[in-house]
Amino acid sequence: MPQEGCPSALLYIVWVINVFSVLSLLVVMWVRCACNELGSTSSSCDIVSGRCLCKNNVVGRACDKCRLCNCSGVGALSRQCDARTGHCTCKEGYEGEHCGRCSYGYYGFPVCSSCKCFESGTNPQNCDGQGRCQCDERGQCPCKANVVGRRCGKCKGSTFGLSVDNPLGCTSCYCFRRTNQCTQADLTWSQLALPGERILSFGSGETRLNVTNQLHVIPGTEGNVSIASSLLFDAPLYWQLPREFMRDKVKSYNGYLRFRTESSGGRRVFPEQILQTYPLVSLQGNWQLVLEYYPPTLSPDGRYKVKLHEDHWHLKNDPRRVTREMMMIALQNIQHLLIRATHASDATSATLQDVAMDIAAEGSPTSSRVALGVEQCICPTSYSGTSCQNPNTGHYRWYKKNYIVSTIIIDLVGEARRCECNGRSETCNSETGACQNCRDNTMGPKCEVCITGYYGNPDLGPCKPCACPTRLQNFAETCQADRYAECEYGYYGNPSQPGGSCVPCDCDPFGSVHEGCDNQGQCSCKEGIQGRDCSQCAPRHITSATGCQSCVDGCVDVLLDEVEEMIELATSVDVTGIIPAPWPSLREIRNITKVLRYQLNRYHSSVNISQKMIVDFNLDYIARDHLRKAKALLDIARMTFPPIATLRSDAKDVLDLLNSLYIQIDETIAYLKNYAIGETPNISIGVALEEAEMILKQIQMRNFTLVKIGADTELRKAELLLERIKKMDQTNPLTQDIKFRVGDYESKLKEMRERIRVSNLKIDQTGLLMKGNAQRLGRLNDYSDRIRNSRVVIQDQNFNSTQLLRDAARYLSNMGINYDAYPEGTEDSLVRQAIQSLQTSQELQSKGRDLKTMITQQLTTLNKQQQDLGSTRGIIDIANSRLDALHTLMDIHFSANISSGIQHALTRTEETRNNVEGTLEKITSIQTNLTIIKEQARELNRFDNSLLNEIRETISTAKSHTTKGVRLASNMQKTVDRIENKSKDLRDRIEALKRKIKQTRQYASSIRVSLTTDAAGVCTRKYRPTLHPSTTTTITLNYAISTAETDALLLYVGSRNTSDFMAVEMVNRRIEFVWDAGGGMQRITHPLTLLTNTEDVSNDKRWYHIIVNRVGNIGQLSVVPSNSEGRSGMLQPPVSDASPPGFSKMDLLPSDTVWVGGAPPRAYGVLKTRKFSGCLHTLSIDGENIGLWNFTESEGCGACNEGEELVVRHRDEIAVSFNGKGYFKGSNRYQRPKPYYNTVLSFKTLDEDALLFLAVNDEKNQYFSVALENGHVVFTVQFDAQTRLVMTSSRRHNNRDMIQVQATVSNGAIGVMFPDGAVH
């Protein structure tokens, strides 16, 4: 310590030690520090060495000397350095304290030069992020992989687009493998934007969602969408962008797809692990490639910017990395672009907005948005487009066969081939190859045919114009001759005249003989029909169902002659100057009289009813009666309400179950409809259909007859072998022993299966344990990694702790100095301030802990209150819903059942009161009218007698005229009645004539005329029966073959307007039925082989009964020998099959034709035969017999015989079908009485009441009948008006079985056998 009285300057102590033999002398001396105030940091110095604490760049014991600058290097601007830091001022490109090295971005010390590296092409590891990059000592910058040049400013060959963001620097040229030369396209980024926003909302009901690449897609691509669903979605929904974002988007490569998507509502948010399996964006291109984009993080505001570059996308269900080639091929033909819409399974709405896609387009060359990454290839002459992705002009895109499933993905794009236009055009559609702008008057996909109005073969010579009728006035589409001056059949006009043309005849098909007409357009009409188009009946003809019918029958024509004579006489009388009879006035008076009489009668009846209601009306009684009925209804409602409520609940459960089943069915249908849409090469619907059609054609072309014969032979052999084995089984004594051993083996096998099952269970359990152990091992590995990381962290912390200890020691030494400056005892001591700060911090920390504890408790209490409030709100909601349901039930049942009765009673009471009031008003009006009449009568009394006499004379004259008019009217009425009676008799005669004509037609149709070929083997006939569109058809034929022919066309029925047809053929001696109901053709073959009959077809056992039944698209064919009694075991069952579904109605019209032995030329492609052979006896379609003699056209044909037994059976066995609107009337063939009668009637029906049979003798008032009454068969015989016999069966017989009733009359006794076996 300094002594008092010493100078103010600080001193330092010098210890001097002298040793004298044994004594030591310690001398203490005080010396001044003498530190320079400018150069030292303080006035004190080291107490031992006396060295002062100097400032930077100051040296010396007293800090009184400056350090030398040493700025003599080439990098320093001057020799003087900074007086404060001592650093030299360096030139550009130099750095260091003495400017002794090159700075960052420079090279070549001592002459430092700038590297000037292009940051976009230099390896980013050698750049500082501020645009400066370091090169080597030779000035070579470290370039990226696809960059060359001393400064890394040039792309390698076959690369383009130098970019900072590209880790390779430049992008490799792809050009769809057409070339390897390309440059950066001189294009800038523009945007394809989706205007507005799209909003998705949810409602009640069910909406079928599309499924694309296993993703649920919202229907539609534009506007707002509302879908209905009663179930939660198990996966997110997706938006689909519209067509503007599809197809070729190669120019969007390396650009961005921007959008904003929001999903609101819903508490069941999809877990993150679920969302990680569903991409944010899905892009499908060129059928196979399905690319998916997963964002690194979810955007809080829903805005995303997705780069269309291969480094950011993944292949769907494929671990391979997406390559540039995959990305370019996908962008060349985008088919689906989907964006995830929802985030929760119960989301209430979703929004898509601000959708924009970058597309490179021509713009300003100085634009900052250069479309980097878009290549401009130097394409071969056959390609165009920035990347040579499209065919050039004069070329089209050609694909390999089955290119969709090709494993070489470049095949998906196709290749360019020159247009195939036979040298008549150089351009064609770039996608289809159809030629365009054909020359030399040609057209067609390959310019191979002449255009409309020209004829010829372009390959043999030029196309010539049709002169139809002249070259300047050409009406032809095509032609073969050089000149046509007349209209075609079915047209009329004079086309050779200027302005002339051909007009359709439009002849009425029912009134004209044929479709043609003369040059004036007059059609050839049938008898009794007139008009240009034969659509009007001639005079004295009437319209009927079959056309115009003449009225000349010996009666009607006579009446018409008389009427015409009367008209002629009436018109020949000169009535000039004669006052006409007052018939119109009389008729008007008569009509007014009728109206007044009717109104007066209504008035009298209303008065009577009103008086009766006034007398009988008792409101109290009616009200009490209605009240009683209301109480009774209330009691009934109270009794029926509980079971009805239970029934309603059960019905609601059933309805919910049905709705859920319907939803499942609907989803299954939607899934099947969208099955394999957008799948990658595993499945291709188009290829599968092509292969299926090819296989179907191969199957149809194959003849399985020999295979079937061999299979039948093998089947018979197998059956014989089976019979032998069965016999051996029954006779062999070792069978029981073998069966015992087999049973023993089976029991052992069952035991072994059980053990295997137990082992499998244990293996499964072991697998689960192994899986758990693997998971535990994984967790242990994670823990080991964490421990290892923690160890490294601890070592770092130990190192830092050592460093901190060193720093603490240094700070401690400084603290000693500072402690001297601020002793502990003073107020501003640092120790005291530190202690106070520590106490204040501890107090604040304690208060913070208390505050945190209090907030935690309050949050817990608040959460509990929120939970209680939520449960209370749920209870209130449940109670409200139950109250609403109860109110609804009360409104429905009580209002409907109880209040309805009271309301009905009150309504009737109100109506009665209104009627009474109306009646009183009418009575009042009547009284008023009576008063008026009295007043008028008083006025009449005041008239004089002369006026009254005139009135009397006028009335008398009117009476006389009225009497004459009545007499004339009576005579006229008699004449009218006589004419009406004759007209009625005429109508009756016409109806009788119609019935006779109908019966005659039925008899004519029943005439059986057999049909065969003529001597030349030709027979083709056309028929025009009444055909109608129908979903069912029944065709019946009786047929025999007497020659060695194996094939024959029996029948063809087809529509002229559609592809619908039916045909019956014999192919290889088997009957085949082929048909097409609109959905596609189908053919079935009956296995029965037809045997050859005798030459005169007299072998009855070789006639065949062919029956064809069609219901919708299902056809059935039955072929049975016509006389097959006793041979039922040899009969073949019917065969059936179905044509493609979706069409069931055969569109046949009355104008269509039925062919026998022939078909129109357009049907030859689907038929196997074209001519007729054999003998056809009967033909019927839908129960209508077609007389083979009643043809419209015939070629060849002859007659053949029918077997005798077949004729007998047709004559004796008659089956008729009735629909409840018709009947069959016959005559008795036996005219003389017989002692014995036997009548058998077979029938089947489902009606309970029907008249089956009735025989009447009107002269003797006798009849007998067979009828159904309530399902029972009733047999009735009436002998006379007083005697009647009725017999009834004991059981009901209106079922599907054929029932037979037999009645026998023998010597006056009657016996009836019913179906149940009872005899009466």
TrEMBL record:
Residues 184-376 form the Laminin IV type A domain. The keyword Coiled coil applies. Gene3D superfamilies: 2.60.120.200, Laminin, Tie2 ligand-binding domain superfamily. Residues 1010-1200 form the Laminin G domain. InterPro entries: ConA-like_dom_sf, Laminin/Netrin_ECM, Laminin_aI, Laminin_dom_II, Laminin_G, Laminin_IV, LE_dom, LMN_ATRN_NET-like_EGF. GO terms for biological process: animal organ morphogenesis; cell adhesion; regulation of cell adhesion; regulation of cell migration; regulation of embryonic development; tissue development. One of its GO terms (molecular function) is signaling receptor binding. This is Laminin subunit alpha-2. It comes from Portunus trituberculatus (Swimming crab). The lineage of its organism: Eukaryota, Metazoa, Ecdysozoa, Arthropoda, Crustacea.
